[in-house]
Amino acid sequence: MPTAQTILDSAEAQMRARGYNDVSYRNIADALGMKSASLHYHFASKTDLGVALVRRYAENFRAAYDAQIQGNSAPLATLDIFIALHRQALAEQELICLCAVLGAERGSLPEAINDEVRAFFIGNINILTQIFNNAGRPKPERAAKASVSALEGAMIVAGVNGDMDVFDATAELVRTQLL
Amino acid sequence: MPTAQTILDSAEAQMRARGYNDVSYRNIADALGMKSASLHYHFASKTDLGVALVRRYAENFRAAYDAQIQGNSAPLATLDIFIALHRQALAEQELICLCAVLGAERGSLPEAINDEVRAFFIGNINILTQIFNNAGRPKPERAAKASVSALEGAMIVAGVNGDMDVFDATAELVRTQLL
DNA sequence: GTCTATAAGATGATAGAC
DNA sequence: GTCTATCATCTTATAGAC
């Protein structure tokens, strides 16, 4: 595996647990048995690292979604795939969404990173708008905005409370929009 | 106004915009025209400051809620007050909920602070559980968990996207549970 | 590509004068 | 209560050897 990818892997895991500002080049280097100076060869600045990280995160999410929807699934089945994609890492590794973390720290982040976070949210809103639209729901974009918000918030509250039922109850509310 | 309160005021405004880890004793002191050493007289450690901050935030929220519900309002009217309490600071000052920010940074915070954040979420879930219960809704606690999650997430996504409609669309979804 | 060495600045925190 | 002065440590980042 290319070193740049292992750097992003470590950065992602740490930032999803502790936030952008608590993760340093040293933290990441230590976790990989490297020196912090070496990381600057792959990502000249922390901003570069952050931008690359969110971009990869969004691409991976989209790729996983595209791989799981087989052509013309029913809207509810497609929504359940979208929900499951959010649920996974939270249940298995207690990791919340990278963009929920970065979105909460927005005021301290370089605008280039905020732009990528926004693109992730808008991309997900677009995915869900299409699903709700296919189901013939009125105002599909508003349903999509509410769904993205609910699921992002659910990861944070479920994480703090140590209660996966918080996530599942929220997912149920999101699903009612297609029932 | 007591100095301790003005310190908390500045800390709250800054942390709700930039996160816990990007706000320092120096930042707060500068904003107040003081020296960082002086802050340690009022809050010996940053953990003490954080705990006091979340505790005051939860108390203020609860007091504002109690002041606005007049005795026996209808469930939907009461829910709208709860929603409006979340909407205010976001619309007027672009400040998201303190506990949404701290919840996102959970893995880097002292456990004493995480405990206060959890108490805030549980307190709000209890408030909403009572509202949904009064309305005769089945599984009122699950509706409450979903509502808290949705509103916390809505503040983050609305903030990043610069789109208050994200919040309002989410609030609408929360309200459907009483329609 | 990775290292050592280093820079300039920020951080939470303390001691002690006023 | 607030200050000056100071501390040990951490931060992002660079220069240059290997």
Give a verbal description of the structure.
- 2 copies of one chain form a homodimer.
- The first copy, chain A, has 179 residues and is mostly helical.
- Chain A has a single domain (47-176), classed as Tetracycline Repressor, domain 2, CATH 1.10.357.10.
- Helices cover 78% and strands 0% of the residues of chain A.
- The first copy, chain A, has helices at residues 3-18, 25-32, 36-42, 46-68, 75-93, 98-104, 111-134, 140-161, 164-176.
- The model of chain A has no long low-confidence stretch (mean pLDDT 98).
- Chains A and B meet through α6, α7, α8 and α9 of A and α6, α7, α8 and α9 of B.
- The first copy, chain A, binds a DNA duplex (18 and 18 nucleotides) through residues 3, 24-26, 34-38, 40-42, 44-46.
